[in-house]
Specification:
Elements lengths: L2 H25 L9 E7 L3 H4 L17 E8 L22 E6 L2 E5 L5 E2 L5 E2 L23 E3 L4 E4 L4 E3 L2 E2 L10
Antiparallel strand pairs: 1-2, 3-4, 3-10, 5-6, 7-8, 8-9
Length: about 180
């Protein structure tokens, strides 16, 4: 089969992957805390160069371009638009950082701040995972003790009670995170 067909097929495959990535981003546009993915393209060497039969820069027929491929998909961690919901347990981080939550024995990071209070006053995610304080324990509000609020610096303050700072962390490398 002519080499051009392979180049065209690889280009079509790369565009399919790009469209799948865009479709996933559109499907999750209303998902709280969702970060879009970007398809990263890379130019390919010609097949002869990939196989070590030729060298780049010789100017021969074997030095023609090899088309494109999707190198990876990469999460875009740029901040999204903040939206006031009026729900006291809905939180957002203005800038870098993640909330810490606990799922069993694992500590997880999340940007989704659509939390809720349990009947026992524990601040949890929509899936029921406890939101952690800076001390590593779950954030608990005493519902019988009166009103409470989230301060602008990310602490839970209850009327006449202690101030509990939420654990907000920034990992050393965003590339090491897994969805």
């Amino acid at each position: 089969m002519p080499y051009g067909f392979y180049l065209s097929a690889e280009g079509a495959h790369a565009q399919t992957k790009r469209l799948e990535t865009i479709a996933n981003n559109l499907a999750n546009v209303d998902t709280v805390g969702f970060k879009r993915e970007l398809a990263v393209f890379q130019a390919r060497y010609a097949e002869a160069i990939d196989q070590g039969l030729s060298s780049p820069g010789l100017g021969s027929i074997d030095d023609l371009g090899g088309g494109v491929m999707v190198r990876q998909t990469k999460t875009d961690f740029s901040p999204g638009q903040l939206e006031r919901t009026g729900v006291p347990t809905d939180l957002a981080i203005d800038g870098d950082g993640f909330f810490l939550v606990r799922k069993g024995d694992e500590t997880l990071l999340t940007r989704a701040g659509n939390f809720r209070l349990t009947a026992a006053g524990e601040l949890v995610t929509q899936q029921g995972y406890p939101v952690l304080s800076e001390g590593g324990g779950p954030v608990v509000v005493n519902p019988a003790a009166g009103s409470w609020e989230i301060t602008p610096d990310g602490s839970v303050r209850q009327q006449g009670g202690a101030v509990i700072p939420l654990a907000i962390v920034r990992p050393a490398s965003l590339d090491a995170l897994e969805k």
